[in-house]
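Notes to self, Magnesium chelatase:
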Amino acid sequence: MYSKVHSVGITGVEGVSILVEADVSDGLPGFSMVGYLSSQVREAQDRVRTALRNSGFRLPAKKVTINLSPADIRKEGTAFDLPIAISILSASGHISSSALMDCVISGELGLDGTIKPVHGALSITAAAKKAGKAVCFLPQENVREGLVIEEIKVIGVSHLKELIQELNSPGYIKEASTVADSVIEEPCSYDMDFSEIGGLPLLRRATEVAVAGMHNILYIGPAGTGKSMISRRIPTIMPSLSLEETIEISKIYSVSGLLSPEMPLVVRRPFRSPHHTISPQALAGGGRIPKPGEISLASGGVLFLDEFPEFQKNTIEILRQPLEEGKITISRMHGSYEFPANFMLTASMNPCACGFYPDRTKCRCSEQQVFKYLGKISKPLLDRIDICVESRMITYEELEKKEGGESSASIRLRVESARKIQAKRYEGQKIYFNSSMRKAEIEEFCKLKKSDRDFLKQIYETQKLSARGYEKLLKISRTIADLDGSEQIQKEHLAEAAGLRSLEGKYWGGIYGQS
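result:
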């Protein structure tokens, strides 16, 4: 007899509908599986055979053929164990084929018939809903994750016999109640705040501008001047995640196996801070079976690279394409995998190996050593960083001040206001932030009065800007104007933007020329 079961495979971070077909027919007894399978999927026949026997079922002494289609998609992982077992039982007459028409089944089988959790349950449920299915059967540990997707019934199962009973007698398993709304409505709190930072007005302001327009930012200065402290607090001033953002980010963490059963959603903006010894594959993603890397795990949030020049050159150069396109594509012999990479890059570095350049009373590095150190950051990568701000040594008086600075909540209100202006401005377009403006948008939304154009010309000639530097200056000016609630870019906005761009020329002007 023939039977089929609907399941879902994972490609990148998205689910793909997979049809598991079983044919149990007369012939020489055997068990064969086809359909472009990985070794993990091929091993399913041993797990399924043993799990069926230990659950009280025996494979008939017939020829069993399993096909996973479509054949041009490589099947990975252990989530096909359960649908394979159910398809065999249906083809053997233990389950009605009509009970399998409107459901999706996914799960790993233990040898005793228990159903174990799988990665990517959120993507599996989303794909099941997209395919128009009414029910999605998942391992019990994955139920809270699956319930995030609305308008589809999610049923958790813990044993093979339990699932068979439910398929033959619907209603046997009590349906779980939704948890998505309660999780999303939980207050998003942080254990750090901008109010803990005293002084550093320039770094605070530059950070606010960077977050408001989603501009990449580089902090440069001696050790112990607040660069890392500011960076780690950036998520606290970013707008809260929308439901759509929450689901998209959670999908990445789901396929990576980083979601816990207790917290099925990512409710905070991601903050990833890999060590400078990270490999290119760990940063970009990859492996024999490609998985998301740090730049994808930072999507929707912040990727912080501390000690920027200490990263391997071939590692940080990987950032160039994702910073432009907001995604990364990893190609393997058996297919291509696309992962999101829409993050805000935040980096910090010392100005030289000892950290004190250009203070020659403390710095002992030669000019050649300084240029070599700064030269570890290539010009193409530097061109993708909008804001460069200098941190200075904190005075004793600033350390002794008891009162802190402005709170994260207060700063976040201004950032959210500026983000709303941008959302309205770019409505119906493929961009969302000022940092993503192209030439056409710059010409439309960054118009200047005659006197302001003359002032911009002075900045352009004084700082010897390139065409790219000119566009960056206008993008930052547009964000500063949005923070001020100004429809028109004013002279003071241009002046502040010029100040946030000038340090690139100060440090790298002798190496690459002005930006």
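- DSSP finds 22 helices and 18 strands in the chain.
- The first strand starts at residue 2 and ends at 11.
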